[in-house]
């Protein structure tokens, strides 16, 4: 695994939702989630069609997509967002996370972990999910945005990223935690880090205005710049269009920035120029799925493991 591919895996895990719905258990602190949506078979069918089109777009670009079916028997409305309950790391390590919403805990599934063990070199699986009983939560790559080259975990402070378990995780996996307070344009804390920032190989998208402490804001910007990346500032409006909820992957012809069509349309010409100098834009049309408060990055769990 070379340095240039650390941020952009070529394989991903995605979960196909047969009974997609907007999760009532997560709406209290997810300002990006729709509040009044008709939950019916038409909504679920629309989400399923968007998911299938997204998988087709990714595989056509040369990304390996491991698709798992979720038929909804366990009441898992957010299962299309698997990045919150597990993550994979270079050196053959996998982490399983404790989730805040009770119905999201049912998204964890052993067949995903068994597939990873069968197809990739997995040396160790560390399961933190039992910490839910102590009301400690750390929601994977929603709560943490990793700079895998510099070994930094950027974290928006929230009850979905408890400092006790964050410190434990970062010590075990070799990351430096960089935690900061956040506030959106209305002054509300932002529930997940990956809606306000994304770290790619040559650039980083980030809403610095969302970092509530000015000194910490400058430190985060400096840390990103010191990594050699171009720091692309995104506005609160672009955050609301899910511009920050993007993920860099590697396809047949090089790196891709995968984001929603809505997010891609919100990019400025200057941002687009920097991004396309390093990676091709791959927009996914997922307006129904975005009603649940997550976008393209949330749908994709990157596989940072060596194939067998």
TrEMBL record:
InterPro entries: Amdntrnsf_FN0238. Pfam families: DDAH_eukar. This is Amidinotransferase.
